[in-house]
Amino acid sequence: MASRLLTRSTAARLLSHLCRRKPDPIHCLLTHGAASASLLGPTCDLSAADSALLRYPARWFSSSPAAATEAPMTADGLTVDSIASKGWTILPEAESDWRSHTAAVAQSIKLIKKRLKWGWILERTKQLAVVLERPDLWDDPVFAGRVSREHGELMGKIKPVNQFEQELIEHIEMLRLAREENDNELESESMSALADMRRSAKEKELNALLSGDNDSCSCFIEVQAGAGGTESMDWAAMIMNMYRSWAQRRGYTVTVVEEMPGEIAGIKRATIKVDGEYAFGYAKAEVGVHRLVRISPFDSGKRRHTSFAAVAVIPILGDASSRYQIKDSDLRIERFRSGGPGGQHANTTESAIRIVHVPTGITATCQNERSQHMNKASAMAVLQSRLDQLEIARQAQMNAEHTQSLNEISWGNQIRSYVLHPYRMVKDLRTNYEVSDPDSVLEGDLDDFILNYLSSSLDEANVSA
Q1: In whole angstroms, what is the distance from residue 455 CA to residue 408 CA?
Q2: Is the pTM of this model over 0.90?
Q3: Quick one: which H or E segment has residue 320?
Q4: What secondary structure letter does DSSP report for 366?
Q5: Contacts of 135 (CB under 8 A, 6+ apart)
């Protein structure tokens, strides 16, 4: 019974609506027996006016903990899983058909749970809840904090899905009640709510693609020119401009951290910082080697050339407990004069900074800021993220959960081809998704490529699991 009860807010809205249409809304509801009275419960959280309306011997709301774990169910036994398995035809959104809207939302919820690895999340949450009950848990504050944080993150994924599932069942019940009452206004409101849920479900499907540990982080995007001299350097610059345009389209903040220009054109290497929610979650789809085929603008013979550029994406971790601990004694800091056009003091003082982490040999350079202190801070941020990524890869290898695309950036690892001659096409070799307008892609229209890859890679991971 508990899982079939309306939430307090939904029942209050229903009563408020009936108050406008019926002289005795409570009598109206109670006359429908199980079809309506079973949808309500205790009134302790309602206002005084709403509480007065509900002083009748019926259970109107549920406060039972079981309601959070049981599958929400309508009075006639419909659940999200049973709706998804009925095979109801899903019509366009413009069609006012409750079965179509309901089936579309149910299918979305089913897909969201699959992408979130729902069974594993529920089991892991139970395990963590047991650990949190241990009386000696906080004897080790670091471990306790990690467990508490993981439990909170998992509950943050579970609760929105449960609430969305409960909301669908409630709208179905309200629609049924409206039809029993011949209440056209309430029926129209319920139908509109189902249509809104259907649109919202698509956004939640997308959010479920970005459920990885570091997906919500900002990131650094690094581009490295491949073999091929000026051709590849020019291609690396085009790739970097593409990512800057893509990030700006999404409303992210882009900062150039490091840029080493080529001798004639383009760049040998560059790093940008992309600040914004889920920047890493999206950008990680771009890790690998990008291949360009075109008539070279640097070849007087107008011959066709193939160029390569490698892309790496590194999350900027906000959780200090999971970051690589850098010792000052492990650092070698080198100072030199900045290159490029510069400005006042830029090329006359040793303001550029190169930091070398001696144990690993990893380096970070910054020369774009005006002062040595600012360059050092930026270089340290890049070094920290590179070492964090190294630590993530090490832990992933220990857990046998690492992905080849993040750890092996080699020239044989082409993920996408951009062909400008003899025909025009951009094709992702991992998903076979392609478009015939390379100009729009190079101007930053990457979302379709990214979403196709994230969706296919997550589905493949679920199948293999």
Answers
A1: 21
A2: no
A3: none
A4: E
A5: none
